[in-house]
Amino acid sequence: MHRFSTRHLAPALLAIGASGSIVLQAVATQPPTNPGGPPEPRPRTLGDEAELIDMVEDARAEFDDADGLLDALEEAGLELETFEAELTYVKINALAGDRQTREGRLYLVNDESVFADDAELDFQRGFSIVFTALDVGDRRDELNERYIFDGRWLIEINENAKQFNATEVMPEGERIDPLRIGEGPFPVPIGQKKADILERFEAELLETEDGLSAFGPGPRTLAERFGFAQLRLVPRPGAAEEADFEEIRIWYDTRPGKALLPIMVRVVDPEFDESLIVLGRRKLNEPLPRDVFDARLPGPDWARHISRLRERRELEAGGRPDGDNR
User: Fold this and answer.
1) Residue 201: helix, strand or coil by DSSP?
2) E strands within the chain?
3) φ and ψ at 190, to 5 degrees?
4) Number of neighbouring beta carbons within 10 Å of residue 228
5) Nearest CA to 91 among 168, 27, 32?
6) CA pseudo-torsion sign 263, 14, 79, 67
7) Ramachandran angles phi, psi of 2, nearest 5°
8) What pLDDT score does 136 carry?
9) Which residues are registered as beta bridge partners of 158?
10) Contacts with 322 (C-beta within 8 Å, 6 or more apart), sequence order
11) Residues contacting 311, CB < 8 A, separation 6+
12) What distance in Å separates the CA atoms of residue 178 and residue 9, rounded to the nearest whole number?
């Protein structure tokens, strides 16, 4: 069983749209295993998504350096209230050399007013990820997993296994910024302040095709064809442990009207495992389904585990927790 670790996605979550016939080679088509039988589901390709990126040669914004791009990104982030997209997440293990691909959807809330009128849903700012499929080699498993983070609690819900895990990351009355790069378990590279980024990271503007060779020709061809702006962030001394990654590279859509949303995100973690995030069918500032943010405790037939911050600190100090782990 390939259990998803929250660390796998850190710190990259907004990525791609595209069109045409370019195939994401990280989820390359496998030979058919049932000749003569019903057609097997095809892996997602960039060419299959009608909305991913319109193939029009719009005039693009151009940036001379990272400072100019960060200025534009900060301004664009002020317009973000909600975001929804299809998600493809590719993970390459450096030691074993194996590759896993998960598919699902990302839902993001950046404005506290989005669910302000919902008396039953206490969600102000953060995101939810729903995974529906896992590909490992020739095998494909259907998933029904949800991960919710609001700056205080990280919730993991596995509908198939009837498992509910809740991890408290901040004490009652306090929250971290769930969208700040290097702070939450799934930092999202949008809506960031330039000064905050430069205080913690060295920023560099790179050639658009650089850094994609490990994921096959598809993403590289896409980047070369459309000339996306690539930003590379490396933690400064003192920020590396907090960030929990060696570097993050983000490709932004520079076409007019695209709000400089990320197109691809590549992460190298401290073990030199690599990840690529790909998003399609992006929706900006449209209503989101409330149920994907619902983190209420399930029924008694579910396995439930509640990990409270105070109890973990007591264990680390050699004490005995007296909390409510169920």
Assistant:
1) strand
2) 82-92, 99-109, 126-136, 139-149, 153-158, 163-168, 201-206, 229-235, 247-252, 262-268, 274-284, 303-307
3) -140, 160
4) 23
5) 27
6) negative
7) -105, 90
8) 94
9) 145, 163
10) 311
11) 321, 322, 323, 325
12) 14
Size of the chain in residues: 326
The amino acid at 201: F
CB-based contact 225:251 (threshold 8 Å): no
Which of 90-104, 146-160, 213-227, 301-315 has the least mean pLDDT? 213-227
Paired tokens of 27: 């989820």
Q: Which candidate, 248, 290, 177, places its Cα nearest to that of 14?
A: 248
Which helix (H) or strand (E) covers residue 6, if one does? helix 6-9
The C-alpha atoms of residue 96 and residue 322 are separated, in whole angstroms, by 40
Cβ(277)–Cβ(106) below 8 Å: no
Residues 155 and 296 sit within 8 Å (Cβ to Cβ):
no
Q: What's the DSSP call for residue 214?
A: G
C-beta separation of 84 from 288 below 8 A? yes
Tally of CB atoms within 10 A around 59: 8
pLDDT in tens, 4-53: 554 445 444 432 222 222 223 233 333 334 444 444 444 444 433 333 44
Which residue's structure tokens are 């039953």? 120
User: From CA 184, how far away is CA 186, in angstroms rounded?
Assistant: 5
What does the longest C-alpha to C-alpha distance in the chain come to?
63
